[in-house]
Design a protein that fits this description.
The structure holds two protein chains of two kinds. Chain A is an alpha/beta fold. Among the domains of chain A are: about 100 residues, no CATH class; about 100 residues, no CATH class. Chain A has 18 helices and six strands. A four-stranded mixed sheet of chain A has the order 1-2-3-4, covered by helices on one side. Chain A has a two-stranded antiparallel ribbon with strand order 5-6. In chain A, helix 3 links the parallel strand 2 and strand 3. By secondary structure, chain B is mainly α. Chain B has one domain. Chain B is built from seven helices and two strands. Chain B has a two-stranded antiparallel ribbon with strand order 1-2. In chain B, helix 1 runs parallel beside helix 4, helix 2 packs antiparallel against helix 4 and helix 2 packs parallel to helix 5. The longest helix of chain B is centred in the N-terminal third of the chain and has 39 residues. The relative contact order of chain B is 0.16. The chains are: A alpha/beta, B mainly alpha. Chains A and B meet through helix 7, helix 8, helix 17 and helix 18 of A and helix 2, helix 4, helix 5 and helix 6 of B.
Chain lengths: ~375, ~220
């Protein structure tokens, strides 16, 4: 009994000692938290206001200005000099016209913009609500205090070309290389295309160099192959490719990837399909090369016709636009690539020499009839 | 008569013909210095080899031009030195004399062409080509000979023309260069000489032969 009393007394003592400490009541904690939150909120508002005022000051220097050329519209902040923006738009459109892939009227369907205040809908307020908006890259040079803003013709052309590509059917969207609509093709591009073909480890490249048209067509990926990976690559090609890529790291490989490395061709195809790897053996420069040759042979109009065509494979569209056979086009491309821009031997040496010899005979006749004086 | 002209002309041209023949013989052989067995070689090596053959080919039109240029001027050198006294003393009409001079020069121009044909044949026989690559020894030799003959004929005609003809030729070239300088001073982006060269060297220009494919080994 006595022991029971002692235990009850100790329990009572514990309950008394567990009473709340001063300043830690729930009400008081809430008040402190609210005060802190209010302080944080006021600081946030203050910082945001400062930032907004800075941003307003920044964008006030870039009031929008409208530049027009051949039906195309560019809205650009005033920081970009009008003459420079006009030049960029004019030259960009000229570049596209020279390249031929993008129809002239396409630029009129959208509005290009650059260096505009992103807060609020500037373009809608300017009356461009219904038109598709396309941002053009504006570059900046110089220090903060004296920054120089400019737009390049290449940026205008590239933005329009990318937008046009997005509007095409799947075959073109998939096949057209980056910078497809820029007409520049230098010696180094020709060299690169040559190197890509002669140094590629892929078997279709070897078949193409050896003169097999089917190999060249697979290398260029210009046909609608039923099984792109299986048709254009051998198992060894895919295994090499896997070995070169980061997926070759055994730690990161799936079961299919392991099966591929162990020699299963079907697994390789499945692996690459799953990884969304490009199914085109030929790199970008090679495909740009084909377009470059096509344009130089058949003109910018032909390339525009081909890109607007939606029936059949890429090879068929190009051949139809040029009015030539598919293989003849591929053969010319092979020669052009392997000779780094050489003209095929269409004429014999005698035919080549004929105009010169005719001139020589005419000159000789003049010399023979004349007298020295 | 032709024999005499040939012998006389040989005296002035033999050194040039000898050196040009040697050069024409050696150049095609350079194309195979990279190796002879390409049938089993990797594609990389075939690519390098094609590039080397192309580099050698770049020199060939210049050699053909040199042949035509040297032989064209050397043909008339004896007459110029003798102030045409020998030619005028011969009992033959000028047309026949010019034809004989031309014939002799054309015959000499054939010697470097034949040397090129011979060495191209040797070079072709020494390599085992991979599929897709072809050799063009006959076409190369023919192209070389025709190109040197064309240049020779043009230079021969200019060098053998009357003083009036030569003055007209030089005046036309001088006027084109002067126009270029004037355009340059006024900032006009146009070159008369460049356009003229393009016209001459692009088919059907008379010198288009010089800008075609000269590679002995080609795709």
């Amino acid at each position: 009994m006595c022991r029971r009393r002692v235990v009850l007394a100790l329990a009572a003592l514990l309950v008394v000692s567990a009473a709340p400490v001063r300043g830690q009541s729930p009400e008081e904690t809430d008040r402190r938290e609210r005060r802190l939150l209010a302080r944080a909120e006021s600081l946030r508002v203050q910082v945001e206001a400062q930032w907004a005022s800075k941003e307003s000051a920044f964008w006030s220097r870039f009031r929008p200005r409208i530049i027009r050329s051949r039906g195309a519209t560019l809205v650009v902040g005033e920081a970009v000099p009008a003459a420079s923006a006009q030049r960029a738009l004019d030259s960009g459109l000229t570049m596209l016209r020279t390249a031929g892939a993008v129809p002239g009227q396409f630029a009129g369907r959208l509005v290009l913009y650059g260096l505009l205040d992103p807060r609020g809908d500037t373009l809608s307020r300017m009356g461009f609500r219904g038109r598709r908006q396309l941002e053009v890259q504006v570059s900046r040079t110089g220090p903060d205090s004296a920054a120089i803003w400019s737009i390049s013709a290449g940026a205008v052309a590239q933005a329009l070309a990318e937008a046009y590509r997005d509007s095409l059917d799947f075959d073109w969207r998939h096949w057209l290389p980056y910078r497809y609509a820029l007409p520049q093709w230098t010696r180094s591009n020709a060299w690169e295309a040559f190197q890509e073909l002669t140094r590629s480890p892929l078997s279709v490249a070897g078949r193409c160099v050896a003169g097999e048209m089917a190999g060249c067509r697979l290398w260029l990926a210009i046909d609608r192959d039923a099984e792109p990976f299986a048709d254009r690559f051998t198992g060894a090609d895919l295994r090499n490719r896997q070995g070169e890529s980061s997926f070759g790291n055994a730690g990161g490989l799936s079961e299919v990837g392991h099966a591929c490395l162990e020699g299963s061709d079907a697994a390789c195809v499945a692996f690459f399909q799953a990884q969304r790897f490009s199914d085109m053996p030929a790199p970008e420069t090679t495909r740009r090369g084909l377009l470059r040759l096509f344009r130089s042979l058949y003109g910018a109009d032909a390339i525009q016709r081909a890109v607007a065509d939606t029936a059949g494979s890429i090879a068929r569209r190009l051949a139809r636009a040029a009015g030539v056979g598919e293989d003849s086009l591929v053969m010319r491309w092979r020669y052009w690539t392997l000779t780094r821009g050489g003209q095929p031997r269409d004429r014999s040496a005698a035919a080549d020499a004929a105009p010169g010899l005719v001139l020589a005979v005419a000159l000789l006749a003049l010399v023979a009839r004349g007298r020295r004086s | 008569m032709f024999k005499q002209v040939l012998v006389a002309q040989w005296q002035t041209s033999k050194l040039a013909v000898g050196l040009l023949t040697l050069l024409s013989f050696c150049l095609p052989l350079l194309a195979v210095l990279y190796g002879g067995d390409l049938a089993g070689a990797g594609r990389e090596r075939v690519g390098d080899w094609l590039v080397a053959a192309d580099r050698v080919a770049q020199f060939l039109p210049f050699v053909a031009m040199l042949v035509g240029l040297l032989l064209g001027t050397l043909t008339w050198s004896a007459d110029l030195a003798g102030r045409h006294v020998y030619a005028l003393s011969l009992p033959v009409p000028r047309a026949l004399y010019v034809s004989m001079r031309f014939g002799a020069g054309a015959l000499f121009a054939t010697i470097p062409g034949a040397a090129m044909g011979l060495s191209s044949g040797i070079a072709t026989l020494t390599v085992a080509l991979p599929p897709g690559i072809h050799a063009y020894p006959v076409e190369l030799a023919l192209r070389f000979w025709l190109a040197s003959l064309t240049v020779f004929a043009i230079i021969f005609a200019i060098a053998g023309a009357s003083r009036r003809g030569q003055v007209i030729t030089i005046s036309v070239i001088g006027a084109a260069v002067t126009l270029d300088v004037v355009f340059l001073l006024f900032g006009v982006d146009y070159s008369v000489t460049a356009e003229a060269l393009l016209l001459l060297t692009n088919w059907p220009g008379p010198l288009s032969l010089l800008t075609g494919r000269w590679a002995l080994f080609d795709v």
